[in-house]
Amino acid sequence: MSDTVKYVLDEKDIPRHWYNIMADLPSPPPPVLHPATHQPVGPDDLAPLFPMAVIQQEVSQEREIEIPEPVREVYRQWRPSPLFRARRLEKMLDTPARIYYKYEGVSPAGSHKPNTAIAQAFYNKQEGVKRITTETGAGQWGSSLALAGSLFGLEIEVFMVKVSFQQKPYRRSFMETFGAKCIASPSDMTEAGRAVLREHPDSTGSLGIAISEAVERAVQRDDTKYALGSVLNHVLLHQTVIGLEAMKQFDLAGDYPDIVIAPTGGGSNFGGITFPFLGEQLRGGRKIDLVAVEPSACPTLTRGKYAYDFGDTAHLTPLVKMHTLGSTYVPPGFHAGGLRYHGMAPLVSHITDLGLVRPRAYQQTECFEAGILFAKAEGIIPAPEANHGVKAAIDEALRCKEEGVSRAILFNLCGHGHFDMQAYRDYLDGKLVDQEYDESEIAMALAGLPSVA
Amino acid sequence: MSDTVKYVLDEKDIPRHWYNIMADLPSPPPPVLHPATHQPVGPDDLAPLFPMAVIQQEVSQEREIEIPEPVREVYRQWRPSPLFRARRLEKMLDTPARIYYKYEGVSPAGSHKPNTAIAQAFYNKQEGVKRITTETGAGQWGSSLALAGSLFGLEIEVFMVKVSFQQKPYRRSFMETFGAKCIASPSDMTEAGRAVLREHPDSTGSLGIAISEAVERAVQRDDTKYALGSVLNHVLLHQTVIGLEAMKQFDLAGDYPDIVIAPTGGGSNFGGITFPFLGEQLRGGRKIDLVAVEPSACPTLTRGKYAYDFGDTAHLTPLVKMHTLGSTYVPPGFHAGGLRYHGMAPLVSHITDLGLVRPRAYQQTECFEAGILFAKAEGIIPAPEANHGVKAAIDEALRCKEEGVSRAILFNLCGHGHFDMQAYRDYLDGKLVDQEYDESEIAMALAGLPSVA
């Protein structure tokens, strides 16, 4: 009835290095370009936004990058995070599959986001920065940076996508409890925000707009930098603690994953759990089926174009080559706000382009259905973003049953749903509906892509 | 800046036995009486409410009671829970005190309540029970029993105090996600509820009323039993896993607490962390200062009368001798709903009467202020109930500073505040006000105490 199998690591097993996939890629990802000159950007171009240690990580080719001791110290509060074998779920599905999940909801912010928030706060503090600006969608990233800012004594200013600001007031309370400022975006605090409001006074916002606002506020002030919670190489790098721990835990289990699954919004959750395994494969180790799961209503990897695009709406960021729906595209307001981004991590796009990833998209109701099944079996209510991974894992487990094959399935349960109970309320009340992207709006946004030679 | 000190135990260190303080008390607590005859109740009197294994635990004198393996199996999902040294808080307070906290918010329901919910669900399932009824205040207990019911295949019916049902809709969603039924109390489903509604159609409910409803529903059906989340001996027994683990963790730390602090509503949180330490003291070990913290607006231990009283409003329960404000007293609707009970665990009342406990009461705003200070230092937002323990711990640490003495302070951080962000919102907006109990209402309720020879 209740056989909990938990693979626990000792504190000394918290990785001492992050893993940098750049060292093992068969070809490097296309360079990041300056928005005006379309020439590859150098460290100086990024210096107004990020501390130098972070910029160096962004372009590093070293396989292992040391985790600073003060960062490991904070990690120790909740790391190593547990790896569970989902035996009760396996029984419920009557599947021969071996389902494992890495649970990142044990962090004080309830998701994987502190893995990079702590690191970024540390590097900013070390370089004398006083204040960090950022954007947040569902609020998990903003909460994590608020927490990190509080621990390292930094002011945090969070532009929160307006639709989430209104739907998730408790996320704002969470950030403010840690002393952060939380502003609904688009706001009238920035030129980028005012421009949107002039044209669309009722704009519900988007991550692209919020990024513009946060970037604008950072470049205006010398003592202020900007932080991003996903997409960029250094963010994915910091998240590899997840996969590195999982590898050690599979050693304990005497098993190895055949399939690794993660929800994919900006790509840091996916990169965090898959890159260490993919690195093994690229260095001649066992081949793994990598599944990137995205919402059908924001189908970046499955319907987007692999092209150079801006990370934000106001076109303040450098150009990166990524799967994109167009930087001006505003996705419908579904509940998995963390997956509501027009673009994708360049590294995830690159390996998808290389054929190393199998992307797939799900509607939100089927994801919530899977999440509730999971909660009843395993006792944990997943975040709406995490439900996408749960759904794919259940589908793979059912495929095992159909084919009469036992495969080891690993997914990253990247966060709990404690701040998303309104979404569950809607689902339970039968009010949650699937949302469709607007083909013509995407086409229009893609038509506006910058032309890069 | 960030020196996390976490004392981690191995899975094999999850206790194999609960600790029963009855074996070590200098005198037994007064007997539980039948509500009609005023004679001590026997097992048969309690059989309509509880499974026999639980009834035996309620009256057992054995020092150690074995934890069934299937219960330990579920415990393994989150136990052993971590013990932290709050070094960042110590620095912030500039105190020579050594502050430790045991963190029970790591459970899937976010509080210590699953420690007993899992055990009670197991015993009910084992004895063929199909359905369990219960009441809940803030929702932490109802959520935990919903979780336990889901894992053991039992139907769960939760009567939730109406003011909390309305203030905390997400707790209801949480329970329903696990398949439980959640009913606002007073309801028209029971005679007890209807009686209240006839007299007070706008009643916001109380734990006493909700208990009456749950008990009534249980005794009406042969396949249904009742479960209580605090107060009774067996509940406090199950919670001793907290204190037993903490003792082992203090061994690791090479330290021993001088002061042990816990919030006190029904008493299970307090009993859970203190009884193993008190047992040591009673068997000739080191004397410890035990601090029970309650809300000033429901001051059971500090202002109540130590007398026989009913556990519920409709007087369906047996009579127990406890500190009480009178079973008909309805406390004001403050945010720490889990501490909003007119009575107290008979065991906690008994040891308080024996002079072994130092009770104290705090207003809610000072508790939230302490909670926010704690969050900023330690990264965890405590539940409003837990803030009472935080406040007392901070006060004791400041007393150490004043006196220039280093003492080891242990408190039970019994749950996180993820479902209580509205309370933090109110605090941050300056809208949270202290609430006073009504002296004359308490006097009236106490005047109605049953006269027991």
UniProtKB/TrEMBL annotation, chains A, B:
InterPro entries: Trp_synth_b-like (IPR006316), Trp_synth_b_CS (IPR006653), Trp_synth_beta (IPR006654), Trp_synth_beta/beta-like (IPR023026), TrpB-like_PALP (IPR001926), TrpB-like_PALP_sf (IPR036052)
Co-factor requirement: pyridoxal 5'-phosphate
Keywords: Amino-acid biosynthesis, Aromatic amino acid biosynthesis, Lyase, Pyridoxal phosphate, Tryptophan biosynthesis
Organism, scientific name: Thioalkalivibrio sulfidiphilus (strain HL-EbGR7)
Highest taxon above the source species: Bacteria
Name of this protein: Tryptophan synthase beta chain
Family: Belongs to the TrpB family.
Lineage of source species: Bacteria, Pseudomonadati, Pseudomonadota, Gammaproteobacteria, Chromatiales
Tryptophan synthase beta chain-like PALP domain: residues covered: 77-415
